[in-house]
Amino acid sequence: MNAETIILEALAEAVLKLYGTVPDPELLQVQGTRKEFEGDVTVVVFTLLKISRKSPQQTGMELGQALTDMLQEIASFQVIQGFLNLKMTPEFWTDTLQQMAATPEYGMKAPSGKTVMVEYSSPNTNKPLHLGHIRNNLLGWSVSRIMEANGHRVIKVNLVNDRGIHISKSMLAWQKWGKNETPETAEKKGDHLVGDYYVLFNEKYQQQIEELTRQGILREQAEKEAPVIVEAQDMLVKWEQGDPKVMDLWKKMNGWVYKGFDQTYKRLGVSFDKIYYESNTYLLGKQLVEKGLEDGVFYRNPDGSVWCDLTENGLDQKLLLRADGTSVYMTQDLGTAVSRYNESRFDTHVYVVGNEQNYHFQVLKVILKKLGYTWSDNLFHLSYGMVELPEGKMKSREGTVVDADDLMDKMVETARETSQESGKLEDMAPEEQNKLYEILGLGALKYFILKVDPKKTMLFDPKESIDFNGNTGPFIQYTYARIQSILRKAQEHGYKARMHGLPMLEKELRLIRLMAGYPQVVEEAGAAFSPAQIANFCYELAREFNQYYHEVTVLHEENTKLRDQRLLLLGQVAALLDSAMNLLGIVLPERM
Question: Quick one: angle between helices 473-492 and 560-583, nearest 10?
């Protein structure tokens, strides 16, 4: 049991004993003491003044004395500006260390009985994954791991956008200018090849628009009448009608893309429990729209298009079916949500989707509620900011995106260069070095992205991300490898990690206090769907350890009992770094 829980349980009893009132649980606020003040646990006194009917100072003093009398774990207390700061005894912290070391799954919660579905990745089959997809995939994977750590059953799903006008553009470009090129003949991954044809389509499209405008046609009209866009739209209609030739081409090119995606996912270290395809789910969405029309939830315009009036909800009119009967994104998202709930009866559904879709998910929840699906209240949009580069934003139509595969290659190469400059890996075999460069490069990429609050737009700098100093993945990886090196040497000498009841340094107690808060960090990260909280814990723990190790002796400590205690402490630091970084999908190397 951690310090906050012990104090919280005793606080209710102290309030009843002192003031004769059973306090509302919401009034009992306990938190870790801020670094600038002495103490381990802080009780907020202000919320209890209506019960005590005394000043903050006097209330704090009375509660402090009562808690100290009740709990032998409290060493001292002081009241500062309406906050009661409690300092726990050194014995409490050494006992805490022993309990942590004896609990292999420390910080992980018992099964909750709840099911959480997390949707992430959601790529289009007209282009390869890029840097924005990397943030999406890493967030989705890490949030899934954090939900599992909180005891929930997690279903990781991917919704592939395998239909629509953008897919038709790639297909048409390959049909017109591809000359039967394949990934094998081009010596390219299939997703890259298809992406090239998407870029080519837009180049040809722009050329035709310019030609039409030179002929005196207004640009807006030219954009609609350019031959290639008319052909692409015709191909989309044929696809929805099931035209055999169009369907065969669609299956072939999507097959190329899926094979390429799988390679990228594997290297990135992410996977899914189930993959949904929009080509299947949009049909159910159409059925829901028809049902909504029958029930008067939606209305049909004279041109045949179907809409939902959301003005009473402070939103807009929302198109659900176009005049030609083709569906929109909202149509298939309605169908997907209903089919997923029917399959899994999820308690929470998390959509990991960029913040440009905020309005879309507002509308999705409202329409589902109008259709009678009360579980729509359990849909959560994890809205994340875009990833930008020092040179600006990415644009897929112009082929200026940072390709995910290229970026991973670059990160591994940067890890190689940085490691060779440091000279730390010279005694490693080449094969072992290459494996380590992959671990460091991808660890740097993942950590740099996940340490930023998901809601924030972030600037990605590959060179900065792989620095072995500062708040980076390699810094934490190096810290872990350093501890493992010490523990291996200790094992070679036959040393045993164990407690002997000797007094511990303040820096050691600080490390234990920090680690004791890990379960709360996991819980808070789960509540906020924020891997950044886990990342910040890792950095703080690694930094605190390095400051401690710089000032103390471990292997060469003459007092063998003190040496054993410090080895136990080091082992627990390594165990929690491994546990926490695992929630981020980051591998920690045993040596480097």
Answer: 140
* Average pLDDT value for residue range 39-58: 95
Return the pLDDT at 572.
Answer: 98
- In the chain, what are the domains? 3-88 (3.30.1360.70), 120-388 (3.40.50.620), 404-583 (1.10.730.10)
Q: Residue 303 burial (CB < 10 Å; 0-12/13-18/19+)?
A: exposed
Q: Which CB contacts under 8 angstroms, 24+ apart, belong to 549-556? A: 549/482, 551/507, 552/505, 552/507, 554/486, 554/490, 555/486, 555/489, 555/490, 555/493, 555/495
How far apart are the C-alpha atoms of 362 and 360, rounded to whole Å? 5
Sequence-ordered strand ranges (E) for 437-586: 458-459
pTM of the model: 0.91
Strand pairing class (306-309; 317-321): antiparallel
Tokens, residue 167: 């897919």
* Predicted pLDDT of residue 311: 94
Which residue type occupies 260? G
Terminal C-alpha separation, the chain? 36
CA pair distance 352, 338, nearest whole angstrom? 18
CB atoms within 10 A of CB 212: 19
